[in-house]
Design brief:
Blueprint: H1 8-14, H2 24-44, H3 48-54, H4 59-75, E1 82-85, E2 88-91, H5 94-97, H6 105-111
Antiparallel strand pairs: 1-2
Helix pairs in contact: 2-4
Length: 134
Amino acid sequence: MSTLGVTPSDIRDAGFGLAIPEGPTVDAQIQKLIDKAEERLLAAVPSVPRRIAAGTLPAALVKGVVEDMVLRVIKNPRALRQMGVDDFQATIDTAVSSGALYVTGDERALLAPAPRGSVGSLRIGLPRWRQPGA
């Protein structure tokens, strides 16, 4: 079961323009993709659950990334790169054409914790050569 709350219904809602069939068999397959996507996402960015609980990472943002990961597979389950019928030819975008379930670099960057600022060295007081009477 989904730990981040993504459901097959969410995938259908996010898949604008896609005719994703309904039914228990299809829902079970979509749920399996959701579970795999969440596992891979949490392996790539392990701080996600802690940051959601702390309120520093919006759950909706994480949910959207999982939906995008699953939709990449659903859009092209056979990993076609090009297709053609008679005089029609089409080339599919490489991000979609792999048909693989993965976290993109942009998605990792979106979910990565914000870098902490560092002070570096900080001098306090006047340098010895500027002190009166030194």
